[in-house]
Here is the input.
Amino acid sequence: MLMRYLITRPQQSVHGRIHLPASKSISNRVLIISKLSYNPYPIENLSDSDDTQVLLKALQSNDLLFDTGAAGTAMRFLTAYLSTIYGEWRLTGSNRMKQRPIKILVDALNKLGGKIEYLEKEGFPPLKIYGSTLSGGEITLDGGVSSQYISALLMIAPVMENGLTLHLTGTVISRPYIKLTLRILEEFGILSEWNENTIRIRPQEYVPQRYQIEADWSAASYWYQIMSLSDNAEIELLHLFPQSFQGDAAVIHIFKKLGVKTILLHNGIRLQPAKVECEKFEYDFSDQPDLAQTLTVTCALKGIPFQIGGLQSLRIKETDRIAALKSELKKLGYMLEQPQDNVLAWNGIRCEPEKNPVIDTYEDHRMAMSFAPVALKCGSIIIEHPEVVSKSYPAFWNDLSEAGFNIDS
Here is the structure.
């Protein structure tokens, strides 16, 4: 059954004291590491997102077949993890997942002593994985690939017979996500070296730990967007740590350019309006690709021309996010351009907007959440398949409603 939400801007001000979801990125890494460390302690404040719950269910299952649905992180992390666990495993996912490439990771694992076969199309899930002890060793990967491939390999590196020496070539994207993985490894007793573009992890034993997951900076970005687009707003975001290793904590500095000031509190942050600091927004999202949709929509709605780069990973996400942004913003009257393959730009060119635009979410949670605040400027907006937010932020619509937005099915 097709679901749509009509989002209408608050009659008065936006007012919210928001309990953000736990970090999906940290939760998924800690789940894999806890399993590898035979951790007897429960993980505190684990994310309730679809992606994390899919991974949790798989790790608790005794089945030989795992279905990750649309959870890309679960697909990549389980591919690596199951390669180290004795048995014959089958790993599949949704139709979209079967279109998302995994050859780079599979080739790397096979070079390190694994045995993985494709059950349908070469280079794509579903997979048959013959788990065993991996020999490990030295491999080279393009640094421009998804950081999830790299993180998947790093987490199993300590249990490989010879550890792992990983050489990254070219421009390394999503560095904060790799640093986050190495930081969590360190918290579980694993030492690593990262010199220039080479990461080394020797064979080691994980040390079980009690672990509490912090709030999600990616989820915080939509509230920064709401503050930036609001005429009158009071927003507090609880349990965020500005010194977090999450790459998307960069929203503090990015949104400062777009008129949002961050005030530190003892238990989180407060957002306040400030003067916009740029006439044209330019940024390379190589390290924060999940913020690209939020900033693209924000700049367009504020009438700020932009040119953003570092978007190479956006085509292999839940959807082709570059194409999706161009299509949906055109419905609102904004003509985006692609001056280069991994670059999106808007020079202020407008077209006639649709009278009653309906935003297609393409089975992508970040499309739904980045377009919902459009209601602040347009009065209202219709979001198709709003349920997709459960992938990372299940309480998003409830939080919007509590903050003053009207949401009708």
User: Anything to note?
Assistant: The chain is about 30% helix and 20% strand.
